Structures are given as C-alpha cells and as structure tokens.
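Example 9 (inverse folding). The structure is encoded as follows.
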C-alpha cells in the first residue's frame, strides 16, 4: 500500500500549469494521491500560465489528459479542487487577483512549484515576494535545470534566497523520489550484509546507466542548450552516485543525509582539459532504427542545423577518499538507445582463488543491480551449483525482486512521494544549494574541456548503445558495460 500519512490542508500553485511536466507528471501524481485520500478536501491546486483560461477551461484541458487514469466521477471530484489563474511572470497584470486567491487561506501550507523555464525563476520569486506571498508555511520548488553553469545557478539561488530561506527551498530531482533509490538507503543501512563490503576492498567498480529510447522530440529547443551532461549527469546521475558512495549518515534528518552527499561531491576527482579525452566520451545520434521505426538523426530533428550538442555521455569518475580510492564509477546516459533502462550496478571483486575445476564453468563476479526503470527492483547475481546430477556445474543466476511483483502493487510515481514531502516540509530527498554548486563545480571543467577541444561529438546510430569509444572507455580497464540479458 502507498503511504497514508496525512498532510495538512495546502495550496499548491503550479507555475507552468499548462506545460508538459505539469500535465503529464504533476497533476496525475496529485490525482493519484487524491484517489488514495491524501489530499485534504479544502486543499487547492492552482495552475498558473499565460494562456487565457478560467477554472472551467483549465479543468476541461486536464480532464482530457487525465481521463485515461480513472473513472470520470472521481476525476470530476478531484478537479473541483483545481483552479487556474492567467498571468505572465514578467508582467504585472493578474498578480493582484492571484495574490488575493492565495491570501484567502492564510492557514494553509502553501507550495509554489516553479515548473517553468528556469529563466523565469528570478521573476517569479521576485513577484511572490513583492505580493507578500511568502507567509506562514510557504515553500518553493525549483525544477531542474538550476542554471546552465555555476554562475547562472548562483544567480538563480541568490534571487530565490532573497525571498525564500534555504529551508523553504526544495530543489527537486525526481530520481531521488524513486522507490529503488530510497531502497538503496535501506539495503545499505538496514541490512548487516552489505555495508561491511561496501568499499574498495570488495567492490570492483560501479556503473550507473540512464538510457532512453526517445529522441529529443518536442524538447529540442531546451535540449540544444543543455546536452546530456547538463540534462542528466550534473543532476540525476551525480545524485545517484552520491547515494551509492556516501558514508552512513547519523540519521535520516535532511542535513545529515545532504552533508554526506556533499562530501562525495567534494571528493570527486577533477576531469578537465588534461584528462577529459581519456575519461569522457560524448556522442550524438544520427538516423537509425529505434523501437522498430526509422528515425531521424538529432541534427535532422533540429532542421538540419550543424550542432555540437551531445545526446550521449559516458565517463569514468573517481572518488578520492578512503572508502572509494581506486574504484571507478562509470556513468553512461544517452537518447535513442536500444532500451529504456536506468540502473545502478555494483560489481564486487572476484573471489581470490577458485577451488573448482576448469570444466565446472567460470566464476562470475557478484553484482547487485538496482533497477530504477522500467520495472523497479533489485537483483543480486550469485554463483550457484546447477541443480541435479551430472557433476558440479557453476551457474550465475539473479536473486530477483521486482517490487511490483513482490508487493503486488504498482509503485507510485516519484513525484507523488516528492510532492507530499514538500507539503510536509521534509527536504531530505531534495538538493541543498551547496550540492547544486558542488555538482556544477565538477561538471563545469568537463564542459570547458569539450568546448576547448573543438572536437564534435562522435556519431552513433539511433538504436545503438552509443559510440564505440564508450565501449573502449570501459574495456580499456578490462571491464564491460553490464547487460542484464547476459
Ligand atoms: P513547457 O511544456 O514548455 O511548459 C512551460 C510552462 O510555462 C507552460 O505552462 C507555459 O504556459 C508557462 N510559461 C511560459 N512562459 C511563461 C511566463 N512568462 N509566465 C508564466 N508562465 C509561463 O515546459 P515543461 O516541459 O513543462 O518544463 C517545465 C520545467 O520543468 C522546465 O524547467 C524543464 O526543464 C523542467 N523539467 C521538465 C521535464 C519534462 O518531462 N517536461 C522533466 C524534468 C524537468 P504559457 O505559454 O501559456 O505561459
């Protein structure tokens, strides 16, 4: 069963309420929480954007998008709690009316979710401040990307910080809301089995992969200015790396966890012009076959423009501390890959000596695979004896736990968990300002090294696992990318 912890009545304002994220993720997540009885009846969800809609028009738009999820009667009940205000973040009109709506419920927890382009964060926070809306229990949620580099992240954080304190600021990274990621904490710190082995004496290497089958599609405008390093590595993948690598926090108190993650970020070895060519590979998809269809290359999707934006990155990161010295963390992410899969693979060292005959088969290394998507779960690959007579034959098999199968329920979407965490004021799974800055400090020199090299990203066919140089990156070290089907 999903968590049924109650929350106080709240107003949740979604700036960018007509946008893709709001309609595809945030409102369905809120609707699911409503179906589970977790949205108090007098709470309000307020969509805000420039489009000239009223409450009825907005509800009709959402109804069309949400109707597939459940029966219409429940949906209409939910939509009675949804409102809309039209305004422009950069213009005065509409703000007085919006402020009056919000101030009508002074006792409510209020959440301002900035689901717009980050260029608007400064304007939005400024106007929320001017209209005196940071009252009582208010929080602001910032969607990624927080800036384009360290300087722009600082500009946004400074502007937000003029209106909202750090404890009111929730920088969301939805990967941290995934069940598997929270399960990583429980596996590591709730079992006596793993933590004694969780270090360079026993772990050979770690792989973190986030592969998408889709291309950039309608997000091309945003993506062209971001690229895979900014879009995936600087935030989601570094956060996953931190969860794998951090020291045990003293508790799950927000700052206890975030202090430990920050130490990992500070311990990452620099990748810059001196070593980027050895430690990183960037690629860009060309036309190919993906999911059975012929698809365009990235540049063709952009109307044929020549561009050096990467749609694929593989890199080898290292953490310079006692626990992880000499253990590589291989990170790989790309669009137009053959499968949609996000996983963390922890590979243990081989046994020091084999007592088995060569004819028994090979001894494979143990692997712990934490799958974030598509089907959240955990697999522990072990060597066992093939059952039955006929001599001792070794088999490498997974202890496989799909959460959906094991618990007989579909896991809630990460946003369901995170949105209610914001209402409850629990920032444990959100990024603190210094984490975002440390991540940019590490990513910045990689971007600078690529820019200085003047080299174009390597081309790869859509529907492949990226440029061959990515295979070479890991095979040079005598290792291979994990393939769950092997
Ligand atoms: P989007 O589809 O382009 O939506 C943008 C929203 O902002 C629309 O509702 C738009 O409506 C509104 N807006 C634009 N200019 C405005 C202004 N001046 N004043 C008030 N509202 C304005 O973008 P999105 O994909 O939902 O993404 C939103 C944010 O989430 C971005 O920062 C994105 O990087 C991040 N994000 C998105 C996803 C995703 O899956 N989509 C995933 C992770 C993070 P009007 O044009 O009517 O004003």
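The amino acid assigned to each position is listed next.
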């Amino acid at each position: 069963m999903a968590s049924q912890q109650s929350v106080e009545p709240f107003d949740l304002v979604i700036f960018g309420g007509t946008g893709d994220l709001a309609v595809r993720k945030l409102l369905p997540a809120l609707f699911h929480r409503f179906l589970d009885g977790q949205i108090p009846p007098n709470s309000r969800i307020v969509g805000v954007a420039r489009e000239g809609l009223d409450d009825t028009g907005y509800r009709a738009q959402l109804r069309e998008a949400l109707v597939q999820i459940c029966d219409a009667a429940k949906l209409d009940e939910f939509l009675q709690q949804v409102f809309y205000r039209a305004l422009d973040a950069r213009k005065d009109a509409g703000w007085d009316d919006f402020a009056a709506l919000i101030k009508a419920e002074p006792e409510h927890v209020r959440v301002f979710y900035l689901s717009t382009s980050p260029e608007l964060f400064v304007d939005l926070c400024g106007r929320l401040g001017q209209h005196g809306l940071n009252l009582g229990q208010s929080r602001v949620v910032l969607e990624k990307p927080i800036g384009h580099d360290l300087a722009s992240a600082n500009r946004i954080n400074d502007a937000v910080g003029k209106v909202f304190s750090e404890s009111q600021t929730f920088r969301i990274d939805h990967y941290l809301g995934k069940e598997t990621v929270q399960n990583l904490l429980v596996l590591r710190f709730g079992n006596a089995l793993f933590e004694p082995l969780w270090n360079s004496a026993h772990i050979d290497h770690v792989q973190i992969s986030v592969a998408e089958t889709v291309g950039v599609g309608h997000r091309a405008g945003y993506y062209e200015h971001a690229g895979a390093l900014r879009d995936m590595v600087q935030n989601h993948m570094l956060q996953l790396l931190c969860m794998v690598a951090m020291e045990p926090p003293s508790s799950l108190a927000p700052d206890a966890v975030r202090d430990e993650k920050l130490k990992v970020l500070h311990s990452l070895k620099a990748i810059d012009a001196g070593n980027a060519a050895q430690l990183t590979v960037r690629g860009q998809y060309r036309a190919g076959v993906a999911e059975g269809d012929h698809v365009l290359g990235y540049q063709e999707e952009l109307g044929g423009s020549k561009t050096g934006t990467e749609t694929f990155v593989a890199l080898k990161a290292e953490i310079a501390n006692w626990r992880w010295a000499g253990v590589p963390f291989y990170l790989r992410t790309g669009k137009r890959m053959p499968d949609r899969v996000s996983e963390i693979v922890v590979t243990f060292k081989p046994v020091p000596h084999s007592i088995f005959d060569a004819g028994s088969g090979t001894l494979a290394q143990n692997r712990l695979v934490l799958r974030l998507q598509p089907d959240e779960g955990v697999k522990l690959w072990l060597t066992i004896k093939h059952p039955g007579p006929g001599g001792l034959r070794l088999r490498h098999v997974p202890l496989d736990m799909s959460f959906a199968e094991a618990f007989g329920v579909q896991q809630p979407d990460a946003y369901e968990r995170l949105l209610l965490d914001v209402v409850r004021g629990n920032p444990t799974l959100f990024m603190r300002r210094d984490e975002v800055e440390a991540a940019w400090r590490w990513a910045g020199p990689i971007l600078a090294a690529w820019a200085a090299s003047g080299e174009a990203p390597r081309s790869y066919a859509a529907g492949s696992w990226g440029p061959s140089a990515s295979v070479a990156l890991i095979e040079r070290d005598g290792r291979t990318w994990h393939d769950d089907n092997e």
